[in-house]
Design brief:
The chain is built from 8 helices and 5 strands; from the N terminus they run E-H-E-H-E-H-E-H-E-H-H-H-H. The chain is an alpha/beta fold and about 230 residues long. It folds into 2 domains: about 170 residues, Flavodoxin domain (Rossmann fold), CATH 3.40.50; about 40 residues, no CATH class. It has a 5-stranded parallel beta sheet, with helices on both faces. The structure holds flavin mononucleotide (FMN).
C-alpha cells in the first residue's frame, strides 16, 4: 500500500504533528510492501506537488493540530485546491489525525464532522479520524513520557498497514478524556485561579511580541473605536 501523509502543522517538521506521524508511519512501514511519503502543507509553494501526490496515492492521511477550533490555514488552502477532484473516479480513501492543545477530545468533534463531509464531497471512503487531545507538550517531553502514546500510534499504523482499517480500540484510547470529569474540572479551575494554565501560552505570546495584543478583535465592527491596550 502507498500512503501519503500530509502534515498540516505550521511548525512543519519541528511540531507535535510530525512527532505523532513519525510513529504512525513507522508502524505502517513495518508491514512488508508498504511505503509512505510525508509532505508538509506549510510548504505552500509545493501545492502542485501536493496535489499530484494526492492524485497518485492509494491512501491519504491528513494530519493537523486544532487551530482556533478548526484547521491551520495551509490545511484549508489545500482542501480548497481539492475541489476539481470532487466526485472523481478513483480518489484515494482518506483518514485523518486531529490533535489539540485543549485536553478534551470534544473540542475536535466539530472538525471531525467537517472531515466526514469532505470525504463525502470528494466521493471517497472515509477510513476514520484519530483524535488526540492535550498534544502541546509532546515535543518538549522526554521520549520516555511519550512511550505509551507512541506505542499506540505505531500499533495503529501497523494494523492500518496490514488490514486497511483503524483499530477502534486504540482510537478510543487515544481520544481520552472526551470531557473532564468533575474532579479534573476542579483541579483545572484551581490551576486557572493560580495562573498556571495560562503561564505557558503567555510565555509564547511574549516570545512573539503579541502579549499586549492578546485581547484584540481586529474584525469586530467597532474595532476602530476601541481604545488600545
Ligand atoms: C495559533 C494557535 C491556535 C490554536 N488553537 C487551538 C484551539 O482552538 N484549540 C486547541 O485545542 N488547541 C489550539 N492550539 C494548540 C495546538 O493545537 C497544539 O499546540 C498542537 O499540539 C500544535 O501542534 P503542532 O506542533 O504540530 O503545530 C492552537 C495553537 C496555536 C499556535
Amino acid at each position: 500500500m502507498r500512503l501519503t501523509a500530509f502534515n498540516g502543522s505550521p511548525r512543519g517538521a519541528t511540531g507535535n504533528t510530525a512527532r505523532m506521524l513519525e510513529q504512525f508511519l513507522a508502524g505502517f512501514n513495518s508491514v512488508p510492501g508498504n511505503s509512505a511519503e510525508a509532505r508538509f502543507l506549510c510548504r505552500t509553494r509545493e501545492m502542485d506537488e501536493h496535489l499530484k501526490a494526492y492524485a497518485q496515492s492509494e491512501r491519504v492521511l491528513l494530519a493537523f493540530p486544532l487551530y482556533v477550533d478548526s484547521m491551520p490555514a495551509a490545511v484549508k488552502a489545500f482542501i480548497e485546491e481539492l475541489e476539481p477532484f470532487c466526485g472523481r473516479e478513483g480518489n484515494p480513501p482518506l483518514l485523518f489525525l486531529v490533535h489539540s492543545g485543549f485536553p478534551e477530545a470534544s473540542h475536535s468533534r466539530p472538525v471531525e464532522r467537517y472531515l466526514a463531509k469532505l470525504a463525502k464531497r470528494l466521493g471517497c471512503v472515509n477510513k476514520g479520524t484519530i483524535i488526540k487531545p492535550g498534544s502541546e507538550g509532546l515535543r518538549h517531553l522526554p521520549e520516555d513520557m511519550n512511550r505509551k502514546l507512541f506505542g499506540r500510534l505505531r500499533e495503529l499504523g501497523c494494523v492500518f498497514g496490514s488490514e486497511d482499517r483503524l483499530e477502534a480500540r486504540i482510537v478510543k484510547q487515544l481520544a481520552k478524556p472526551e470531557r473532564f470529569n468533575p474532579v479534573q474540572m476542579a483541579v483545572f479551575a484551581a490551576m486557572r485561579l493560580l495562573g498556571i494554565t495560562n503561564r505557558y501560552w503567555d510565555a509564547m505570546l511574549r516570545k512573539n511580541n503579541a502579549y499586549e495584543k492578546r485581547f484584540d478583535r481586529p474584525y469586530a465592527e467597532d474595532a476602530d473605536k476601541r481604545p488600545g491596550p
